[in-house]
What we know:
By secondary structure, this protein is an alpha/beta fold. 15% of the residues lie in helices and 31% in strands. The protein contains 4 helices and 13 strands. Strands 6-5-4-3-2-1-13 form a 7-stranded mixed sheet, with no helix packed on it. It has a 6-stranded mixed sheet with strand order 7-8-9-10-11-12, covered by helices on one side. Helix 2 (145-160) packs parallel to helix 3 (184-192).
Amino acid sequence: GALIFMTKVTYLHHSGFMVETEKNCLVFDYYTDGGKFDNIDLSAFNGKNVFVFVSHFHQDHYDRNVIFKWKDMNVRYILSKDCMYDKSLENVTVVNANKGYIIDGVAIETLKSTDEGVAYIVHSDGITIYHAGDLNWWHWNGESDAFNNMIKKQYTSEISKIKGVSIDIGFVPVDPRLEDKYILAIDYLMQNVDIKHVFPMHFWQDYAIYNKLMGDPRTKEYRERIEKITKPGQVFKL
């Protein structure tokens, strides 16, 4: 029979990931922190179409100094409309929230973030990927109930738009700064959307977050689908 292509996921740093499908290389929210975490093996780009996604302009998601160095390769940039960029570049698509796009055979849908910019749902080579960007259930324990309830409403409303979508790979924030509420976004998502492999992200190098998720009674039904990230540059074959 035909060889089944293994989808390869590389954890880059923070919220940055690279997903290699059969024909495409998809890079999300690459952040090197001034070159400290430069974990992309550019040989992966050879012969593949490269799509570089940026969810919003915050510097820990948008490493302008690095990603635009690849402009002479077969790269398309997909930027949330709040990202400033060199307007002379031709291979840039600027996206808005709650819209759909098709770029070179890759179908892209966006959700509206509860912070800045967008989350992405990307369909490439039969694989569906969800990258949340900063679409998170930002429940801060010190904030007013009014603020926290507003975020809850926004988050659950956006996620409800993808309830029927079957997702192969999800990248979801679990921010330790939210204390006991770090889990709200991933928990709501996993209870409501069919996701085969979920990668925690935006955890500021606090790799103990995986053990915290494993030990949290709320993850009981889906914890075997949570991937364990232990270091930058780590590769997963799914």
